[in-house]
Design goal:
By secondary structure, the chain is mainly alpha-helical. The protein has helices spanning 6-23, 29-61. It contains two helices and no strands. The longest helix has 33 residues, at 29-61.
């Protein structure tokens, strides 16, 4: 089974967020805070996965 690239996952998340944002527009401060936390959480999650995967690949190539 072919692994899905991080670009595909990030693109799908961005599209899903755009669709949700079109359906439920930002109208209050609570909505703004929700979107900031949601997008920040997804960014941290994807970034940590990317960094961890590259670190593991690098350390396995060096025999560490």
């Amino acid at each position: 089974m072919k692994r899905i690239g991080i670009e595909v996952v990030s693109g799908a998340l961005a599209l899903a967020l755009a669709i949700i944002g079109a359906i439920f527009p930002i109208s209050t401060e609570e909505d703004v805070n929700f979107w900031i936390i949601l997008i920040g959480g997804i960014t941290i999650w994807e970034g940590s996965r990317f960094i961890l995967r590259n670190w593991l690949r690098h350390s396995s190539l060096n025999g560490e």
